[in-house]
Design a protein that fits this description.
CATH topology of chain B: Rossmann fold
Strand order of the largest sheet of chain A: 6-2-1-7-8-10-9
Number of strands of chain A: 10
CATH architecture of chain B: 3-Layer(aba) Sandwich
CATH topology of the largest domain in chain A: Rossmann fold
Strand order of the largest sheet of chain B: 3-4-2-1-7-8-9
Structural class of chain B: alpha/beta
Bound molecules: S-adenosylmethionine
CATH class of the largest domain in chain A: Alpha Beta
Largest sheet of chain A: 7 strands, mixed
Structural class of chain A: alpha/beta
Keywords (chain A): Methyltransferase, Transferase
GO biological process, one term (chain A): methylation
Organism (chain A): Spirosoma utsteinense
Largest sheet of chain B: 7 strands, parallel
Order of helices and strands of chain B: EHEHEEEEHEHEHEH
Pfam families (chain A): CheR, CheR_N
Protein name (chain A): Chemotaxis protein methyltransferase CheR
Distance between the termini of chain B: 13 Å
CATH class of chain B: Alpha Beta
Oligomer: heterodimer
Number of strands of chain B: 9
């Protein structure tokens, strides 16, 4: 088990040597991730783990990727997606152009779900989905639009619960245990690295989704990210968070009005 | 109120369970006196429905406030907290909760081991870990961590559990301080036998 001081040492190394700042991540989870890597990669001691991180830049990639949690799903929380259909897309429909930002998009499941919603609302042709993440590897996977066949049954059930009326399989072609989603969807996506800890606003959006990313941050970092989002949201635009996250108690709260019982807010101030 | 015994203010009781454990809680919660001098954290394996039915069900059984945990909630004495479905529950050194949607552990999210180990890290000797009925080996490593950190370990007597496997595993490996049936558990938590 890693000690608090050793966690500090490692996090300082990551800042000093590589510019990755995890010091404002929620400690308990971070500590567990480091312990997990320590035992997965069979380091006999903390010193050896630290040496590897400091000296091997290929290992660093793995380390950062595994330190962050990349678990994701299509149409995760179907009722949230239903609210996107009924409350958000209807409100955005009249816009000449729709810009969406997925911050912390992981391997893209959320982005493809969104593209399907936009297509079904007849809005995809005038939309652009910016999908960003800290990890270049997950973005590479997302860009390919290729996913394992295994979870498709679950995704298709989620899709139907979200108000989908088609056979989910019309959106992909299956091959050798994998599925490839239609290029029509991928064409509207732009993938790029962006670090919520250190990078700035890069556009103005009608909808920002940042789901299950803020739970890994402490309050101070959450506050930074909320300010970044606020700067990146136009009038009457929308912000969507994960099922257990909230802007309540943050400094931007007063400008936003929650929509229904989902984690969805509209910028009104 | 009883003053002797294991439970004094600022203690935390963390309860884990799987199949057959809700029934135990439905007997235990009504027996707890409000206001409660300690806090209770409940981590159950449940279907990954995001609805709050379970929290509602439990709060019907007690006057003590029951809260399904949101990110960064602060753990306070006199409250009962429930781990939300589909997230691991962890505790920070400042006493706030963290949620984590990383890989399942023991086929489970929330995993009892994850919550117990994290609580052991923070509360040490002030923690009492209780493991109830279930068909999974989750929880045993967590109890071992609680014990190592100086906390106390309580396991439901397997013969009284709807599914004996989980408490049996714990008894084999974690050296419990108490092995109790439901009335025994109620007595421990209410009068501190
Ligand atoms: C649990 S996934 C969430 C994926 C998706 N939004 C969902 O809800 O299913 C969290 C993602 O946040 C990314 N992330 C973590 N820290 C980040 C940071 N500082 N900047 C940008 N992305 C980050 C991780 O790489 C990971 O892909």
């Amino acid at each position: 088990m890693i000690e608090e001081e050793e966690v500090d040492l490692l996090l300082n190394d990551l800042v000093d040597l590589y510019g990755y700042d995890f010091t404002h991540y929620a400690r308990a989870s971070l500590k567990r991730r480091i312990n997990r890597l320590w035992s997965l990669d069979r380091f006999p001691s903390f010193a050896e783990l630290r040496y590897r991180v400091r000296s091997d830049s290929d290992y660093l990639k793995r380390f950062v990727e595994e330190l962050t949690v990349n678990v994701t799903e299509m149409f995760r929380d179907p009722l949230f997606y239903k609210a996107l259909r009924t409350e958000v897309l209807t409100a955005l429909a009249a816009k000449p152009f729709i810009r969406v930002w997925h911050a912390g998009c992981s391997t893209g499941e959320e982005v493809f779900s969104m593209a399907i919603l936009l297509k079904e609302a007849n809005l995809l042709h005038k939309s652009l989905l910016y999908a960003t993440d800290l990890n270049p590897e997950v973005l590479e996977a997302a860009r390919n639009g290729i996913f394992a066949m295994g979870p498709m049954k679950q995704y298709s059930e989620n899709y139907i619960l979200s108000g989908g009326i088609h056979d989910f399989s019309i959106y992909y072609t299956a091959q050798y245990g994998y599925v490839k989603f239609d290029e029509e969807l991928t064409r509207k996506m732009v993938f790029s690295t962006h670090n919520l800890v250190s990078d700035r606003s890069f556009n103005e959006f009608d909808l920002i989704l940042c789901r299950n990313v803020l739970i890994y941050f402490d309050k101070a970092l959450q506050e930074r990210v909320f300010t970044l989002f606020d700067e990146s949201l136009g009038p009457l635009s929308f912000l969507a968070l994960g099922a257990k996250e909230t802007i309540k108690f943050s400094s931007i709260q007063a400008k936003y009005k929650q929509i229904g019982s989902e984690k969805l807010w509209r910028k009104v101030g | 109120m009883a003053e002797s015994g294991v439970i004094v203010p600022n203690k935390v009781v963390i309860i884990g369970g799987s199949t057959g454990s809700i029934e135990v809680l439905l007997q235990l919660l009504p027996a707890l006196q409000s206001p409660l001098a300690f806090s209770v954290v409940i981590v159950l394996h449940r279907k990954n429905t995001a609805d709050s039915t379970l929290a509602n069900l439990l709060s019907l059984k007690t006057a003590i406030p029951v809260k399904e945990v949101d990110d960064k909630d602060i753990l306070q004495p006199g409250h009962i907290y429930l781990a939300p479905a589909d997230y691991h529950l962890l505790i920070e050194l400042d006493g706030s909760f963290s949620l984590d949607d990383s890989e399942k552990v023991n086929y489970s999210r929330p995993s009892i081991d994850v919550a117990f180990e994290s609580a052991a890290d923070v509360f040490g000797p002030a923690l009492i870990g209780v493991l109830l009925s279930g068909a999974n080996a989750d929880g045993t490593n967590g109890l071992i961590a609680i014990k190592q950190a100086g906390g106390q370990v309580v396991v439901q007597q397997p013969e009284t559990a709807q599914v004996a496997f989980m408490p049996q595993q714990a008894i084999l490996r974690s050296q419990p301080d108490y092995i109790l049936d439901v009335p025994g558990l109620i007595a421990l938590l209410t009068t501190g036998i």
